[in-house]
Design brief:
The structure is a single chain. The chain contains 4 helices and 7 strands. The protein is elongated and about 70 Å long. It is of the alpha+beta class. The chain is 42% helix and 23% strand. Strand 6 and strand 7 (112-117) form a beta hairpin. The strands form 2 sheets. A 4-stranded antiparallel β-sheet has the order 1-2-3-4, covered by helices on one side. Helix 1 packs antiparallel against helix 2.
């Protein structure tokens, strides 16, 4: 007889699709601008025809780094926060609370805000209108997964 181990599936969240489509269009605009600038310089027989292309590709790489690279990944044992410049791994058993903010999901560990997942942010409009949004639902899902592996209760704020 085999025991079946039920684990939380790996779930990955990135920035919202509308923002990603908008940023992809902006990246395409910069690429076309670079191609246009290169074409003008080739037509005028300039040796620097590659500079507009390098400029536009540099901007596109930076936009990709800011908007397409960040993610939050929930695994059965840890939370992976891949932000702009570094990746952090948080043991789910140490997660006390997850708070959605305009800076991202704030992960509370040891009674303090220890980590921020930049990929999922709560909009200012949702804050002002006191509406639940995607960030609230994801924060709740992460908190439930943490409780499922024995994470401590959230700190009491006085």
């Amino acid at each position: 007889m085999h025991d079946q181990c039920v684990e939380t599936p790996v779930v990955t969240w990135r920035m919202g699709p509308a923002l990603r489509i908008f940023v992809a269009l902006v990246m395409l605009f910069f690429l076309l601008m670079g191609l246009g600038g290169a074409a003008d310089l080739i037509e005028s027989r300039s040796a620097a025809f590659f500079l507009p292309l390098l400029w536009s590709l540099g901007i596109d790489v930076y936009f990709w780094w800011l908007f397409f690279r960040p993610l939050i990944r929930l695994t059965p044992t840890e939370l992976v926060l891949r932000n702009k410049y570094r990746t952090e791994r948080v043991d789910l058993r140490t997660v006390q609370a997850v708070v959605p903010s305009s800076a991202g999901l704030v992960i509370m560990v040891d009674g303090r805000a220890a980590h921020t997942g930049w990929a999922v942010q709560k909009s200012t409009l949702a804050f002002l209108l006191h509406r639940e949004g995607r960030a609230d639902r994801i924060a709740e899902q992460i908190q439930q997964a943490a409780r499922g592996v024995g994470a401590p209760a959230p700190p009491v704020l006085e």
